[in-house]
Amino acid sequence: MTEMLSYDFMQRALIAAVLVGITAPAVGIYLVQRRQALMGDGMGHVAMTGVGLGFIFQTSPVWMAVLVCVLGAITMELVRARGNQRGDIALAMLFYGGMACGKLLVSKSAQAGAGSLESYLWGSILTVSPADLATIAALGAVVVAVTLGLRRQLFAICQDEDFARVTGIPVRLLNLLLAVMAAVTVTVAMRVVGLLLVSALMVVPVAAAQQLTRSFAATQAGSIAVGVVVALAGVTGSYQLDVPSGPAIVLLAIAVFAVFSAIAAPLARRRHRDLQEAGPQVCDVRLPGPERTDTTTPAPSAGLAQ
């Protein structure tokens, strides 16, 4: 471990892993709530075009991917909001067109030999430069600030858009903001786990935390904790075993999900048994009428965690 930390590139890799481990689940929990778990995968396809443009114009592929992915996310949200029956077809063409365009642009760029899509498809965390780390930190800070600072509003629109709209929440603006934050997260994580696996880091830690938690706040905190742990463990394991970091991180996240699922089953049975032993909850609301004189103390009930 000491030897590993003596290398500058490993220090940058571990810091990048922590940042992505926090950022990806912080956005992913809202996508899971909206049943849009594969949205990150589609954005990863679109981001390939940005990477290709970065190679063509010899600029930062990360920032170019941010621009293209944000535009793609806004387009996706507008298509979703319209509820058009052909929306799925339009999104499919957007996703696959982004992938094809990215590969075509890279093949025609002057950097095609040295800088292929491989490191962006599967991640290349050990090649993260100081500039890349600064970009990941800046974009990650924005994502975390938005997803945590607007947690109540974002949770409301994910649960029931109509109710949120009635209460005065700017639903359309927040939907667009959430889509943009998801797009930024994809580009932040692509150097760590790759564009093809980024959706897994946004979804699997959330699904794992849901096995043991019973509230949104606990699930969000638990998913971020799982994301950080598997990201650090994946990078460390990839260094020790000389394997790609992206697949290692994702497989560890899936393993954590499997363990949590195994633990959740007996916990659920125990919780059900405790509720049965406590007996039915007694309502202490007095009914109208002079004959109602029952003052029996209600039996204790097992309340749900908030």
UniProtKB/TrEMBL annotation:
Keyword Glycoprotein: no
Location in or out of the cell: Cell membrane; Membrane
Keyword Transmembrane: yes
Annotated membrane topology: Multi-pass membrane protein
Gene3D superfamilies hit by this protein: ABC transporter involved in vitamin B12 uptake, BtuC (1.10.3470.10)
UniProtKB keywords: Membrane, Transmembrane, Transmembrane helix, Transport
SUPFAM superfamilies given in the database record: ABC transporter involved in vitamin B12 uptake, BtuC
Transmembrane domains' residue ranges: 12-32, 52-76, 88-106, 126-150, 162-182, 188-209, 221-241, 247-268
Residues of the signal peptide: none
Region (Disordered): 280-306
Family indicated by similarity: Belongs to the ABC-3 integral membrane protein family.
Name this polypeptide is given: Metal ABC transporter permease
Species: Kitasatospora misakiensis
Lineage: Bacteria, Bacillati, Actinomycetota, Actinomycetes, Kitasatosporales
